[in-house]
Specification:
Belongs to the HSP33 family. GO terms for molecular function: protein folding chaperone; unfolded protein binding. By secondary structure, the protein is of the alpha+beta class. About 35% of the residues lie in helices and about 30% in strands. The strands form three sheets. Strands 7-6-3-4-5-11 form a six-stranded mixed sheet, covered by helices on one side. Helix 8 packs across helix 10 and helix 9 runs antiparallel to helix 10. The longest helix is centred in the N-terminal third of the chain and has 18 residues. The structure holds zinc ion (ZN).
């Protein structure tokens, strides 16, 4: 079952809503980075929020999220776009703790609570938007909720969750974002707040087989209340390529490339985001050196 996201309006346009299943996407991230369960949950939650925030953009715009909480996983970096592509990594993937007091993966302990959540939107034509907020919980859902309220002045509710199997593979992942328009009635807000208190965690709903549409129906008081506007396939996609790595090697300069040839006889470079390794033989390095000499 491949991942997808839905965009919707509810309560006659008073509420904008997004929901996504990211099980396969987070599974791919876990497989590539070999993250341990708590780190998988942290990365998966950030990627899930990231792919929904990407879907709020238009055209070729892109989004980068950086979370630095001072915890043992180091920083989390997530890139996404308006087309459902997302990629991400944590600096220390081998982090795992006992479950917390709520019986959940202790994401706040892995991320840390003393730091910042930064969002950079590349809107094209050198038009950038940057927003930064202090982390308020380290569990990430609440931190994104705070980000929307504080940095984008949009009252929101963000739910993101990841369930991990005993063998470290991903069992289920997904999330939702609800955003209130300025004219939302008190009654609507109360209803949504009540439901948010009573629904199961979003990761559990995904595990039970709920689709993104069904998650929104449950959150927003049934199918009649919700108008689905668009669905978007979602997957882990990296923008790296052999050509880009070769360009990076060329930019080191001829002298530096010669040093690598003399000392290593070959070059190996991996992409932070997807952990793909690219190897360049001595002959290929000689070629790249010629390019570097011409620059
Ligand atoms: Zn890559």
């Amino acid at each position: 079952m491949s991942d997808y996201l839905v965009k919707a309006l509810a309560y006659n346009g008073q509420v904008r809503a997004y929901a996504v299943r990211t099980t396969e996407t987070v599974r791919e991230a876990q497989r590539r980075h070999q993250t341990w369960p708590t780190a998988s949950a942290a990365l998966g939650r950030a990627m899930t929020a990231g792919v929904m925030m990407g879907a709020m953009l238009k055209g070729d715009s892109q989004l980068t999220i950086k979370i630095e909480g001072g915890g043992p996983i180091g920083h989390i970096l997530v890139d996404s776009d308006a087309k459902g592509n997302v990629r991400g990594y944590v600096s220390n993937p081998h982090v795992h703790f006992e479950l917390n007091a709520h019986g959940k993966l202790d994401v706040a302990r892995a991320v840390g609570t003393n730091g910042t959540l930064t969002v950079v939107k590349d809107l094209g034509l050198r038009d950038y938007f940057t927003g930064q907020v202090p982390l308020v919980s380290g569990e990430l859902g609440e931190d994104f909720t705070y980000y929307f309220a504080s940095s984008e002045q949009t009252p929101s509710s963000v739910g993101v969750g990841v369930l991990v199997n005993p063998d470290h593979s991903i069992l289920a992942a997904g999330g939702f974002i609800l955003q209130l328009m300025p004219d939302t009635e008190e009654k609507t807000i109360d209803e949504i707040e009540q439901r948010l208190k009573s629904i199961p965690p979003v990761s559990k709903m995904i595990e039970k087989g709920s689709s993104p549409e069904e998650i929104l129906y449950e959150l927003l008081g049934g199918q009649d209340n919700v108008k689905i506007l668009e669905t978007l396939p979602v997957s882990f996609v990296c923008r790296c390529s052999r050509e880009r790595i070769a360009d990076a090697i060329i930019s080191l300069g001829a002298e530096e490339i010669q040093k690598i040839i003399d000392e290593e006889g070959k070059a190996e470079a991996s992409c932070h985001f997807c952990n793909e390794t690219y190897e360049f033989s001595k002959e290929e390095l000689e070629q790249l050196k010629k390019f570097a000499e011409r620059e």
